[in-house]
Amino acid sequence: MKWPEVIAIDGPAASGKSTLAKKIADRLGYLFFDTGVMYRAITWLVLARGIAPEDELQVTRLAERTLIEVRPASIPDGRACDILIEGQDVTWEIRQPEVDANVSVVSAYPGVRQALTMQQRRIGARGRVVMVGRDIGTVVLPEAEVKIYLDASVEERARRRYKEMEARGEVVDYDEILAAMRRRDEIDSTRKVAPLRPAEDAVTIDSDGKTLDQVFEEVMCILASRN
Ligand code: DC
Question: Which of 26-40, 68-82, 182-196 has the highest mean predicted lDDT (pLDDT)?
Answer without folding.
Answer: 26-40
